[in-house]
Amino acid sequence: MDNFIIEVSEQDVKRERDKSRELRRSRWWQNRLALGRCHWCGGAFPPDELTMDHIIPLARGGKGSRNNVVPACKECNSRKKYLLPMEWDDYVRQFEKQEQ
Ligand SMILES: [Zn+2]
What we know:
Elements: H1 10-24, H2 27-34, E1 50-54, E2 69-73, H3 74-82, H4 85-99
Antiparallel strand pairs: 1-2
Zinc ion (ZN) binds at residues 38, 40-41, 43, 72-73, 75-76.
């Protein structure tokens, strides 16, 4: 048994995914997209190139709620999927350095 793995049932994931879908249709989300900025790299993108990203992935117990979703460009979104959590942290940190 591995205590570090959060148990998330398929039902939980499905419920949160449904909530995300609702959120994606909301005016609140449309307004966020209209700002045209990727949460992770800070780059400017047309709204139709931004996707909804979950800060904590649903499969790891994240919620489909406003404080867990951010607009992300396609590159950040796909990197987040494929990088290990540690590699992802490094990736995000590189943009934080640029802002200093
Ligand atoms: Zn980005």
